[in-house]
Protein: 5-formyltetrahydrofolate cyclo-ligase
Amino acid sequence: MSGDKHVLRAELRNEFRHRRRGLSESAQQTASQAVLNNLIETNLLDVRRIVAYLPNDGEVSLQPVIEYAWQQGIDVYLPVLHPFSPGNLLFCRFTPSSHMQPNRFGIPEPVIEVQDICPLASLDCIFTPLVAFDAHGNRMGMGGGFYDRTLAPIRRDGLNCQLIGVAHSCQQADLLPVQSWDIPLDKIVTEQQIYSL
Ligand SMILES: Nc1nc2c(c(=O)[nH]1)N(C=O)[C@@H](CNc1ccc(C(=O)N[C@@H](CCC(=O)O)C(=O)O)cc1)CN2
Ligand SMILES: Nc1ncnc2c1ncn2[C@@H]1O[C@H](COP(=O)(O)OP(=O)(O)OP(=O)(O)O)[C@@H](O)[C@H]1O
Structure:
């Protein structure tokens, strides 16, 4: 990758992380409720198995989505840092009685139980956190490449799993610099609207 592009991505990442961290507690709460409403209205939660995430660094909280899913009998999974495949994620079942522990970034994740791991091919929908997105479905994350690596088989093997980015509307960029390994999103949901790509 050229040095310029690398610097540009780092600057963009700082700028957009700053934006989402600057939102008030009440703006955060309103956004997470609105995201749930937008998903219900568009039937995007009429599925059996979803991957959510627990919020970090100003991300939209999916707590209302998780509670709704539990009420509806939808199975909820969370990303867990892979214990021996660095840079990859596992998706582990999350219930109200899951044993949790913080990962090395301080984000709580379920303690891994083999029977709770869901293969990518069995998931209906993955809600991904993001730092910035654009109207083409390009996504920029925290810079670890965790989602890009883990989700690569969806496109490669043509798996039937929707990728939905979740963001505050202030995380929209005009045009993000794309990398060869970036996995584009199928949809993006914000507190204001749903983009379908
Ligand atoms: N909520 C949430 N969960 C997630 C992710 C995410 O972006 N958001 N991830 C998406 O990949 C994976 C974890 N990746 C992460 C990568 C960097 C940082 C982070 O906060 N980096 C800090 C440095 C922290 C440190 O080194 O101790 C930073 O860059 O300031 C957090 C999560 C899996 N779980
Ligand atoms: N499929 C892949 N195989 C191997 N390396 C990858 C893959 N995808 C990404 N990477 C590596 O991960 C690093 C970070 O990528 P990038 O900056 O695009 O992450 P990100 O999209 O911001 O993070 P994340 O996917 O965790 O949200 C890059 O240096 C890249 O080389």
Observations:
- Helices lie at 3-21, 25-41, 63-72, 146-156.
- The chain has a mean pLDDT of 96.
- Residues 3-21 form the longest helix (19 residues).
- The first strand starts at residue 49 and ends at 51.
